[in-house]
Protein: Putative nitrite reductase
Amino acid sequence: MIGGGVLGVEAAAALRRHGGEVTLLHRGSGLMAPLTDAFAADELRQQLEARGIRCVLACRIAAIDADGVRLADGRVFRAARVVLATGVQPDSRLAAQSGVLCQRGIVVDRQMASSLPGISAIGECCEIDGQTWGLVAPCLRQAEVLADRLCGAPGEGFVWQDAGTRLKVTGIELFSAGEQQAGEQDDIYTSWDPIDRHYRRLLLRDGRLRGVLLMGDCTAAAALTARLESDEPATVDWLFDPSSTQPQAAG
Structure:
């Protein structure tokens, strides 16, 4: 399996569950980035390896042939079949060469307009407030916003409510919503139960909840997701359920 994102992890677990010998190759240093932090990514790796899935991180593919996969460092992994789940990365070179502001993708505002007049971008190639989009539903909404503006009737700008991402692997509970990459002024609160292996991480910006990461016990996912765009001041108590034993939190 090549690719350690959500689909790659789910596919690797499914193949292993059906009896296959599975090696998961991922170019990043942590699985499911940017939906996880370093701690959750390593915990996920440990749980996959406990199931017999070999995880090889921070590697680059040099070639795929009839015998298997060869890495840039010379290692070779024999394989009867190779499954790719490498995701989408915007190719914004043409836009950048034309003077359009590009970062992770082509930077646009909520009316889908780029930094140069007359040039717009939607879908997988665009970036809004540091976020790119690889799902169909938000891309369709972007098309509607752009169509309204081009027809001379601009409406409300693009807004997408993040419902979160839940890993679909039996026995491994992981949920991520909102932002996980912390800025210099952001506050991070975490809790870790080493016995039950429950991990919670909240990202706060200006005192408001802006990111949720749960692993193990994900029962609070819906309640925390509903608070993501709220103006309600967040507190460290949100790490815990009222009925639960409260381990020490780190801020």
Remarks:
- Helices lie at 6-17, 38-50, 93-97, 136-150, 221-226.
- The longest helix spans residues 136-150.
